[in-house]
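Predict structure. Chain length: 209.
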Amino acid sequence: GFLNVGTVFTRLASGLDPQQAYYKMALLTLLNQQERSDELDTELKKMLVNQATDPDMVVVAVTLSFMRAVKASVGLSRIYLGELRRTLQRTFDQKPPETMKPTTAFMGLHTLGSIQDRLSRPAKAQELYRQALRINPQDQTVRVSLALSLLQTDAAEAFQIFSQGAAEGTLFEVAYLFAAKHAGEQGRFADAAAMAEQAITIAGNPLAV
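Prediction complete.
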């Protein structure tokens, strides 16, 4: 079909001009749309081991690799996560986030923060989430990530974020459920009830977020 033809031509164009990020991005997008997992994984690995890969594309490749591993619930060993962390950190050392396109920097900071969280490094994760939020303060996904991470180290600030989200009618119901569970375990029953109520409100009204 059309997508197959597009993939063939995009792969050829990428081969003729390996440093052209546009063709690489188009190829990854097409392979992902067609759920050609093996080919997508191969392309991602090639990009990550190639020292000449454009830094912005390394951010995309690491993010996609991480998201695919999370979705499949496999490949999330500390060794694999450590490799992704080192690759992305080297990329930021080579090209700091503030010199990247805001959308790319935001993506990379959130991804690196999520990896740090899964490596049980909440303080480093929170620093990265805050950097991402300085680029896009309204992003609810990163706000949730920060709040959930803070539940491990600073529950008071975490609940402040959740309370603000409740007042604004933002954030996701699953985040409030996590917050409610954590508050209950701490004996903060009023907070637990408020967070659970907000989760129920959002679940009952999908347009609330």
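Summary: The chain has a mean pLDDT of 79.
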